[in-house]
Design a protein that fits this description.
By secondary structure, the chain is mainly beta. It is built from 1 helix and 19 strands. It has a single domain, classed as Immunoglobulins (Immunoglobulin-like, Sandwich). The strands form 4 sheets. It has an 8-stranded antiparallel β-barrel with strand order 9-10-11-12-15-16-17-19. Strands 4-1-8-6 form a 4-stranded mixed β-sheet, with no helix packed on it. The longest helix is centred in the first third of the chain and has 24 residues, at 4-27. The radius of gyration is 19 Å and the shape is globular. The N and C termini lie far apart (47 Å).
Length: 281
C-alpha cells in the first residue's frame, strides 16, 4: 500500500491529468439528472410535467414524474447548463411551488434536484412502506474536491419506475474512475425513526450490477461490475453525519470502495443522504 505522502503526490499528478483532459472528456460525454417533486413530509403528487431547457432556452427534454415523484432526465452534456422546471399547470389542487425552475450544471455524479411543494395538498402524511434512497455529495473532502463524488437514486423493488431499480453514480477523483449502478435491488430497511424526512427507518442496504470506466486521462475500458452498498441517514442536512459504504468488484478485484465495511461506512463530507418510504405493495 502506498504511503500517505505517496498518495498525496499521486493525487497531485492525477489532479493535473484530470484538469488537462477534462474539456476533451466532457465534450463528448452525457449524464442523467434525477429530479424529484414532493412535499416536506414526503407526500408526492400524481404525475407532474417536468420541462428541461438548454442554455439558449431551447426545450431539450422533460417527461412526467412517476409514483415516487421522480423523473430522471438523461442525455445532458456534462458541463452544460440547463434550466429544469416543473410545469405548474400540472400540479394537483391544493399544491403550489415557490421555485418552479432551477438552473443546474450537468455532472457525472449528479445529486437529486428537489422541488418542494407546499399548500393544503401537503397536509396528509403518506403511510410508511418499503424504503428507498436519494442522495448526492462528496466523501473524504478536506480542501477542493473530495476523493469521491456520489449521486443518484436507489428505488425500492416495487417502484413503478422503469429503470431497473435506480441509477447510482460514484466518481473516484483519485483514480479517474466513474462507477454507475444500473440494476439495483434493495435488500433491507432498518434502523431508527428520523425526521429527515419523517420516516421509521434510517438504514438501507442494497446491491446490484453496473459498469465502471476510466475518465479524465484514465484509459480503463468500460467493464461490467457488481456492487454492494449501505447508506445511513442520520441528520438533515447530512454533511458530517450521514454515512455511506460502496464496494465495486470486477470479479475478485475491488475496483472502488468507500468506507471500510457495511459495519464501518464512511461519513460523507458534503451533501445529503435521504431515506424515504412509500406505500407501494
Amino acid at each position: 500500500m502506498k504511503s500517505i505522502i505517496g498518495l498525496k503526490r499521486s493525487k497531485t499528478v492525477m489532479a493535473g491529468l484530470l484538469a488537462a483532459t477534462l474539456a476533451v472528456v466532457t465534450a463528448n460525454a452525457s449524464t442523467c439528472q434525477p429530479i424529484r417533486v414532493a412535499c416536506p413530509n414526503d407526500n408526492v403528487p400524481p404525475p407532474v410535467k417536468i420541462r428541461t431547457f438548454d442554455s439558449s432556452g431551447v426545450e431539450v427534454g422533460g417527461n412526467w414524474t412517476d409514483g415516487l415523484g421522480l423523473h430522471t432526465e438523461c442525455g445532458l452534456a456534462i458541463g452544460g447548463t440547463y434550466t429544469i422546471c416543473v410545469d405548474e399547470s400540472t400540479l394537483p389542487p391544493g399544491a403550489s411551488i415557490r421555485k418552479p425552475c432551477q438552473v443546474i450544471t450537468a455532472t457525472l455524479a449528479a445529486p437529486v434536484i428537489e422541488f418542494v411543494l407546499e399548500g393544503d395538498f401537503c397536509d396528509e402524511t403518506p403511510p410508511p412502506g418499503p424504503c428507498w434512497l436519494t442522495g448526492g455529495g462528496q466523501v473524504y473532502k478536506t480542501k477542493g474536491v473530495g476523493n469521491y463524488s456520489f449521486g443518484g437514486v436507489v428505488y425500492p423493488g416495487c417502484s413503478p419506475k422503469a429503470a431497473e431499480g435506480g441509477n447510482w453514480n460514484v466518481v473516484d477523483h483519485f483514480t479517474g474512475l466513474h462507477f454507475q449502478g444500473q440494476q439495483i435491488i434493495v435488500d433491507s430497511c432498518s434502523g431508527v425513526s428520523t425526521r429527515s424526512p419523517r420516516v421509521n427507518v434510517n438504514i438501507i442496504d442494497f446491491h446490484g450490477t453496473g459498469i465502471i470506466a476510466g475518465i479524465g486521462g484514465n484509459p480503463e475500458a468500460k467493464i461490467a461490475v457488481t456492487f454492494v452498498g449501505r447508506a445511513i441517514d442520520n441528520l438533515e442536512s447530512g454533511g458530517g453525519a450521514d454515512k455511506l459504504y460502496i464496494r465495486v468488484n470486477d470479479g475478485a478485484i475491488v475496483m472502488l470502495q468507500i468506507g471500510n465495511s457495511a459495519a464501518d461506512p464512511a461519513t460523507i463530507s458534503t451533501g445529503n443522504l435521504q431515506i424515504h418510504t412509500t406505500s407501494c405493495k
